[in-house]
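Workshop exercise sheet. Pairs work together: one partner reads the sequence aloud, the other fills in the structure field after running the prediction. Swap roles for the next sheet.
Pair: D.N. / O.F.
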Amino acid sequence: MGIIRALHTVPICSYCGGPMPPPAGRGRPAVFCSGRCRKAAHEARRTAAPDAFEVKVVERVVVENHDLSECTSRVVASPVACSRVLQALARAAADGTLGTDPKWRRTQAAALGLVDAMT
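Structure field:
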């Protein structure tokens, strides 16, 4: 007596290599195990095409120089912004920043001019 062996081929997914689900019925046999693999295979083929291109999103900071008069006019037009600037200057004066650094001399003179104008 001989041994009879039956060879069954197990269908595998063309994209991921995983096992295929059982056939759904008639029609063309499935090539991919899921819609996800079918879509991934399509994207892989599409991006491998000679006319395909990859889009990279790159973040960059663009610093544009602008005239300070625009900032000044916006601050002067807003009572809240003026208050914030004056409070920040008062804090800088209290911690000694305005008195020690020479770059603040024009600011000191402007603040004294404001005090003179208001009294």
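Discussion prompt: The CA atoms of residues 79 and 90 lie 16 Å apart. What would you look at next?
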